[in-house]
What does this fold into?
Amino acid sequence: MNKTQNYRVCVIGAGVAGLSSARYLKQEGISFTVLECTQYVGGTWRYDPRVGYDENGLLLHTSMYKHLRTNLPKPTMELNGFRLPKDLPSYPSGELYCDYLNSFTKYFDLEKHIRFLHQVVSITRLENTWNVKHKHVVTGEEFEEDYEYVIVGTGHHSKPHRPVIPGEDLFEGTIIHSHDYRVPDPYAKRRVLTIGAGPSGKDISLFIAEVAIRLLHSHHSQSPTSTPFPDHYVNKPDVKEFRKNGVVFVDGSFEEVDDVIYCTGYDFNYPFLDGSCGLAISTDSVTPLYKHVVNINEPTMLIVGLVVKACVVTAIDAQARYAVALIKGAFTLPSKEVMMAEWRAHAESLREEGRPLSHLHHLGDKEDEYYAELTKESGISRVPPVVSKIRNYDDIRAKPHNLYTYRNYEYIVVDDNKFTRRLEDKILA
It folds into this structure.
């Protein structure tokens, strides 16, 4: 009997990371339980028209807005060996992608392993196990169980990061974070300021520009673009301060504004992890982690889904395979000293490049190298280099060329290293 059959693994969350981990644990015959605080799978991919709290009094974790489409094409959004339907557009809607995750759950028969409506309260390291306390969010019944391994798959897109800008309390308009944005309708014929130029900042700005009389987009992105913005879409620098009826920008200009949307990202947030876990958690990093997955101080805790500037779904799938291969005993980790030395070398390389520690989990141009490292160490199947090449092309050439039209193209994988791109014939209206 494989010794891993006696291991008990707790998976936190039933989004992409939790479902991917569950799939591979099930395939290896390893005992596991998924704890999910909602009654749904899909995590942040599930659209909910409400904001604030759900029917059980829990903060809504999903940040999905109504008209979202993936910002990467299908070949980079597929979980290993489970294809997205051929009839879907190259950049499917969030709703269609959530349907895909539901189909994934049914295909691999994962639902029976998920305890829905169970909120994790605390995870504490005991001598040889992890003590996990959780409660049923409806009945309030509390549970306490011990596991040999914990996989944290809750992601990092649920706690809004809000900047501190002087004078906000003086402003008489509305201010929300993009976490609470759902549809553009409330901004019809209004003067709107969006702050931030990440994927949601760009998307939401374009949506609102279709209905607003003036859209001010404040950001400090240096990325060139030839996107033909409408005349009432105005790029602005960072905000210096709020006034009663508008904002002053760092260039000294003033604009009257009715509404403000902070598209300023999310803080890493794991309130259920206590000091015994051996991790230092800040708003933008979790340390120290080996290969962005393994808790170096307590290697039976694995974090799946932290990386950014990557094909995140592909990365999550690879990390889940790596984590389960470790639990299975397919490979052995280096010593704590070796893992720590590698982590410190990575942090030092950022410092030498003049980059902040908030970039610790960025893969960027090292994405394909990362997949090669995971395969070399654990023996999992290699993510083909073509996946990272598609993301690089999409991010560096397609999006900057035209934010309105880049999703009109289909990416076709030729082989592990090559792809072609063509105008799609099934563009969403």
Notes: The chain has two domains: 3-159+266-386, 162-262. The first strand starts at residue 8 and ends at 12. The helical segments are 16-27, 94-107, 199-209, 312-328, 336-352, 367-378, 385-401.
